[in-house]
Amino acid sequence: MKKFVFILILVILVAVGFYFINSSKNENTDNNIEVTTAEPVTPEIISELFGKKFDRPALDFVIEVIKSDGTFGQGSINIKNEPGGGMWFAAKTANGWELAFDGNGMITCDVVDKYSFPRDIVTQCIDTQNENKLIER
Questions:
Q1: Tens digits of per-residue pLDDT, 103-133?
Q2: Domain boundaries, the chain
Q3: Whole-angstrom Cα distance, residue 20 to residue 128?
Q4: What is the dihedral sign for C-alpha 78, 79, 84, 88?
Q5: Is 137 helix (H, G, I), strand (E, B) or coil?
Q6: What are the C-alpha distances in Å from 81 to residues 27, 38, 43, 78?
Q7: For an engineered disulfide with 58, which of 23, 31, 51, 79 has Cβ 3.0 to 4.6 Å away?
Q8: How far is residue 87's CA from residue 48's CA, in Å, rounded to a whole number?
Q9: pLDDT (tens digit, 9 = 90+) per residue, 73-99?
Q10: Is there a contact between 46 and 59 (Cβ–Cβ < 8 Å)?
C-alpha cells in the first residue's frame, strides 16, 4: 500500500510540474505581445479583421500573406471587383491578431515601436517625430 501511495504522489507531482512549465511558456513578456510558438497568420484571419474594420463580409477581401512568423505578419489586400489595393501589418497580442497598419503609405515608426515589429517584417518606417524621415531598420 505504501508503494502505491508513493507512486500516486509522484505522478501528481510530475503532472503539476508539467502544468506549470507549460503555462509559463504562454506568459506575455513585452509590449503585450504573445510569446508562444504560434502558427503563422492566415489570409482568413486577416480577412476577418478587415471585415470587422470596414463592416463588410470577409469574403470581399483578397489577402496575400507575404511574411509571417507566428507573432507578426505583413501582406497585401485587395477588395474583390474594386481597383487598387494596399498593404497591411499585423501583430498577435494578448487579445489575438490585430491590424497594426493598413493602407498605401509607409508604416510609421511609432506603430513599429508600439508592437515591437522585427526588422525582417518591417524594414523601413517613417519617423513622424523627426520631419517624416525615412528610417532604415
A1: 999 999 999 999 999 999 999 999 999 999 9
A2: 29-136
A3: 43
A4: negative
A5: coil
A6: 42, 33, 18, 9
A7: 51
A8: 15
A9: 999 999 998 898 999 999 999 999 999
A10: no
